[in-house]
Amino acid sequence: MFVLRSVCESLLVFAIMTGILLPVRLLFVQYVSDNWFGSLGIISVLTFVVILLAKKNKLGFFGPMLERQIFKFQKGKRGYVVFGESVFLLLILGGMIFAIHQGNSTVSEILHLPAISSADTPELILDSTKHWGALEWFTSFLMIPVAFLTSFPEMSVIIASIDQKLDGWLLHFYTVGFVEYLELLGILLFYRLHFRKKSVFPKNSLSCKSSILKHRE
Question: pTM of whole model > 0.85?
Answer without folding.
Answer: no
